[in-house]
Write a structure and sequence with these properties.
4-stranded antiparallel beta sheet, 6-stranded antiparallel beta sheet, 2 helices
């Protein structure tokens, strides 16, 4: 004869198959209801993350004068419309010439600091140059696939959606330095 505690444990382990099926069905139903509640607003545009829309790039001399070699130049990617539901942005600037120096490599909490991405550059010699901003915008809501090119005078923005987790935007501008 088994002790009472052991017998009770054995009885608990041998649940009737019909009761097991009901329990499993109940757990499945609750899981599906929870999933449906979480995905209720997936297609609602107000919960969709979107990258900023760029309309161009401004390049000005820090001292307000002409764009000249050796001077510090401020490069700003102008957001026509700020991004939405973006929790983090990474910015990396580069140039067509190795002698071009950059001051900005930045990661920001976008919803708190959604200003126009800016860099300060210097070029050594007169000539034609291209400056490029590579930006990655991490989503905090739903997403939509955006793959497009927006062009403006001497420049463009290339938008891509390589993942549901982030957007990439490459902003390019050609300019001349005297």
């Amino acid at each position: 004869m088994m002790p009472a505690k052991t017998q009770n444990l054995k009885n608990m382990m041998n649940i009737h198959p019909l009761a097991q099926g009901r329990t499993s069905a109940c757990i499945l139903l609750l899981s599906l209801l929870g999933l449906a509640a979480c995905s209720e607003h997936d297609d609602d545009p107000k919960y969709r993350s979107l990258p900023p829309e760029f309309s161009g790039v401004t390049i000005t001399a820090l001292d307000g004068g002409e764009l000249k070699a050796g001077k510090k130049l401020v490069v700003t990617a102008v957001q026509q419309k700020p991004g939405r539901l973006i929790y983090k942005a990474k910015y990396e600037w580069s140039g067509s010439d190795e002698s071009m120096t950059h001051a900005a490599r930045k990661e920001v909490v976008y919803d708190k600091e959604n200003t126009h991405p800016t860099d300060t550059i210097t070029v050594d010699a007169p000539g034609n140059y291209k400056v490029t901003l590579n930006a990655k915008y991490y989503t905090s809501g739903g997403y939509e696939i955006i793959n497009k090119i927006v062009e403006w005078e001497n420049g463009k923005a290339v938008y891509a959606t390589p993942s549901f987790q982030y957007y990439t935007v490459q902003v390019e501008q050609n300019f001349q330095v005297k």
